[in-house]
TrEMBL record, chain A:
Protein name: ABC-2 type transport system ATP-binding protein
Similarity section: Belongs to the ABC transporter superfamily.
The ABC transporter domain, residue ranges: 8-233
Species, as recorded: Streptomyces aidingensis
Molecular function per GO: ATP binding; ATP hydrolysis activity
From TrEMBL, chain B:
GO CC terms: plasma membrane
GO MF annotation: an example: ABC-type transporter activity
Keyword vocabulary terms for this entry: Membrane, Transmembrane, Transmembrane helix
Biased composition (Basic and acidic residues): 1-20
Residue spans crossing the bilayer: 51-72, 313-331, 352-382, 402-424, 431-453, 496-515
Source organism superkingdom: Bacteria
Protein name per UniProt: ABC-2 family transporter protein
Keyword Transmembrane helix (UniProt): yes
Protein source organism: Streptomyces aidingensis
Amino acid sequence: MDGNEAQIEVRGLRKRFGAVTALDGMSFTVEPGQVTGFVGPNGAGKSTTMRILLGLDRAEEGSALIGGRPYRELRNPLLAVGALLDAAAVHPARRGRDHLLWLAHSHRLPARRVDEVIEQTGLGPAARRRAGGYSLGMRQRLGIAAALLGDPPVLLFDEPVNGLDPEGIRWMRGLLRSLAAQGRAVLVSSHLMSELEGTADHLVVIGRGRVLADTSVRELLAGASGDRVEVRTGEPDRDRAMTVLADAGATVAATGRGTLTVSGLDAQRVVALLGGAGVAFSGVAAHRATLEEAYMELTREAAEFAAGPSGPSGPSGPSGPASGEDRR
Amino acid sequence: MTLPETRDRDRDRDRDRDRAGAGPASPPAARDGFPQLLHAEWTKLRTVPRWGLTLLGGIALTVLISFFSAAGSSVEIADQDRPPVPAGREGQQLVDSVGFAHRALHGDGSITARVSGPAGVEPEQAPEWAKAGLLIRESLTPGADYAALMVTAGHGVRMQSEFARDVPGSAAASPDTPHWLRLTRTGSTVTGYESADGEEWSEVGTVRLADAPEELSVGLFVGSPDITRMERAFGNVTVGQLGSSATADFDEVSIEGGVTARDWRHTDIGGVSPSAGDPGEFRRSGSVFTLTGSGDIGPAPTDTDLAATALNGSQLGLVLIAAVGVLFITAEYRRGMIRTTFTAGPRRGRVLAAKAVVIGAVAFAAGLVAALVSFLLAMPVLRDNGHVPPMFPELALGDAAVLRAVLGTGLLLALIAVLALGLGALTRSTAVSITAVVVVFVLPLILVSTLPLELSQWLQRLTPMAGFAVQQTLPRYGHVERLCLPENACYPQGPWTGLTTLLLYTAAVLALAAWRLRKRDA
């Protein structure tokens, strides 16, 4: 068996829709055995990338390979990749089971396999009802069942938890984790980092059609939280503490009465420096950034970078990650 | 990359693939997978109940409209006093009335003459199919078997028999220069010869007379078919038949063989033609015979195509069947399901082809059922309303022409459904596609009865509605002028020519749709 068939490789994708650049050199790989979060604000290019991976859209440049092959060259694509793009993409008059059945027939899969995925996704008796009457959660489950039908080594889910109730979200997380544990490559997109917290092992953060960060969750958190240490100190010692820490190369900000926010040094070093200089302090706390904060930081930088030269009327201050997209 | 804990899954997967016959190691034959696509599309079609209901509705609409138009039909025969129309062997209506100067011939023999004509009787011009020449008949009764060799006003030399048979001779022969003709009888076989100079003869054709008696009538004849005058404005058609006469001179007349009576007799076969009014004329001046006559020997086709009438509900039933063809793809665009379809089958041209095969087969079946039921229900009603032989010949489902019309209706609806599918794939819009189907198929059917005839016939020839020509069952004769009106579901072209026109449109739209599908993002 091909060693890397459970791998997604995206290299230098470029695509424009009219005057709008949707993808601007998108490159990343998705490895098997882990859940890769594909995060970015709305319009960052997540769905476009996924559509190109599935051979639905054409890129102007670059390649999108699944197990080393472009999608359109796959012999039996549903056995190689399972995808959930849009849960609403079902004919409302067709029963859920029949929807899975035509997909199965397109790949000569037996009807037994249809019943297996119905069970696996907990669709149960709803599979015999018309899809038009499904709740959003039911539709998501039907979409997942369709993706799992061919038992593929690669899975793509576009915003799978969108609209799910808390129970559904919990189920989805468990499913994503178990699929990865089975050695599959799982790519899950979301515009909310919080949705991926605790699910994703690896993150591809994108903005404006390019990759901003391609990193493990742990590294991303470390990179963000390692920057900030909060020091509580009395009024007279604050100025001395600032001097000492700034001399050691840190960026120090007085953020409140008796509070300093230090970036560029870790907490241990701060304690050692202040102790050595004889500055009194009442507490030193390493600020643990959430994934959301780390992500906001990344996307804010991207937005600022983009807004600078190209946005004549754009706000000069830092803009939220979403505002850059809203202008499209 | 291999992960130890995924081994079992991998094995399962391999088994699945083997079962699917399409693992990486499987032969490339599995790659095509067109039968799978067909199976998938068939599953899609049959699992949306409202599409099945719409198809049934298309069948029901076709049958109902066919039935009611048959129930609303009536026959009016203007001229009740006409003598009974002669009928051919299969009960078809015939014309058998020409001016005939004849003698009796016993056994084998031949007749030769030089013909000048036919010419119109001043001031009228002779119609194209006015004819003058030699005739051998079994009797003088209308409908009798015959062999005729003639010069026509506009179509050269012809040899005709059995009312329907017409064999061309030299096309160069014209009524203005004398032309030699000869008929030879041997047993029941009659052979026709022609010559420009009376010396070099060439064969035109042979005719076998069924159970020919010993004594036959041989002689000279002149005919000139009625001219059809038509006034047509906004759905109102007035058709009038106008008699015409022609005249011709014959010289160098000789009969060889067992001629009993020495005298020539003149008979207007079938009596004096009511439309011509005047009896024919026969004059001899020395060796020159001059004969004036009207009428024709040949089939008398009716204008009303009973089978086409019995099937005309398909003109509206097609809308519902085409709607399913459109929805078969636009419903997928509407919901974004087309992406699922194209992820399951990334080769979009093949997916479209599979859809076309499935919807085409289903529409064919629906059309066939609709046509069969329509024909079987509407025919007795038409009979009850006075459409009886000989004016309207007997039609049975087993007749070749009827089978062609019924099967052709299935093919017609199949092609329309596939064309509708192609339109749906091109426009991605249900409303636009169905409107297009109505504009292309239903609107012309209304328009052709109001537009000038010439324009209507071009519409019939060139637009996709040409496919309806396949429902025609009336025989076509090249040697008889016939009024072909769109109101009577008559198409200027033949049945298969019309269906081929539609086929070309369907193929073009489908090819364009496949090309667009491949080029555009889904």
